[in-house]
Design goal:
265 residues; mainly beta; Immunoglobulin-like; 4 helices
């Protein structure tokens, strides 16, 4: 009888093993790796007194210093471009154009410096650019050749601008007028009552009755007025826009922003 009990017990054990489940070992661990980003910031630094350009004449040089400063924490690369516009003349030129940089203050890029017209003109503003530390790209941007560390400033790209000596300042029409007043009367102010004439004054007065001239004083006035249709660059407003771009000092970042060159390329 004892032998039978043992066999029965083994049978029950076998069923228990076949019908059981296996639990696999599973463990999840997490390790936090802290990272912090740095700031990439910059600013254009310009030395320019707006009043210096208030009455700009051909040949007049105005100080205009242009640099760029890294005001962030990380290293950056810098590029600068220029755009100029004459509001009335309608001349708009960017630094990517071969018409942007006159060769000297005596070499404006006008089609004709004497006709009072501006259509099709290149620049009449000489820019004193020192690009020794910069590379001009085919896109018109000037790329600084060095990486700019935190707090560092580029060398100056521009020092001044000069309105070219031969800049077309427009065509002028000259008109002459006379006014007859009583002897020793107060000098009359010029107004619409004055009479215009051409040629010699004596010839114009001969056309008048003698009693209108004899014993009277005759005043003359010559007006030189700008031809409103042929103004050239006279009575105009010039704007030179400076655009500065900073990018973190990384080739992929620069190429993603369409930079054609950068330090080390």
């Amino acid at each position: 009888m004892k032998n039978k009990k043992v066999i029965a017990g083994l049978g029950i054990l076998a069923v228990a093993v076949v019908g059981g489940t296996w639990a696999y070992f599973n463990q999840t661990t997490t390790i936090d790796n802290p990272f912090s980003t740095t700031s990439f910031e910059g600013t254009t630094v310009e030395k320019f007194n707006p009043t210096d350009g208030g009455d700009w004449k051909p040949g007049a040089e105005v100080d205009k210093s242009v640099t760029a400063k890294n005001t962030g924490e990380g290293d950056v690369w810098v590029r600068v471009r220029f755009d100029e516009e004459w509001a009335n003349a309608g001349v708009v030129i960017g630094s990517e154009s071969d018409q942007f940089l006159p060769g000297s203050v005596n070499e404006s890029l006008q089609l004709d410096a004497t006709d009072g017209k501006t259509a099709g003109d290149g620049s009449v503003v000489y820019k004193n650019i020192d690009a020794a530390d910069w590379t001009k790209g085919s896109d018109g941007w000037y790329y600084y050749n060095e990486t700019l560390g935190a707090g560092e400033t580029t060398n100056s790209l521009m020092d001044s601008v000069t309105l070219c000596n031969n800049t077309d300042m427009g065509k002028y029409n000259e008109s002459t007028y006379y006014k007859i007043v009583e002897k020793d009367a107060e000098e009359p102010a010029f107004d619409e009552s004055w009479t215009s004439y051409t040629g010699e004054l004596k010839d114009a007065l001969k056309e008048l009755p003698e009693d209108q001239v004899k014993g009277k004083d005759v005043y003359t006035n010559a007006l030189k007025q700008l031809d409103s249709t042929l103004k050239g660059y006279a009575s105009d407003n010039y704007t030179l826009s400076i655009k500065t771009q900073f990018v973190q000092a990384d080739a992929q970042a620069a190429e993603a922003s369409d930079w054609v060159t950068y330090p080390g390329k």
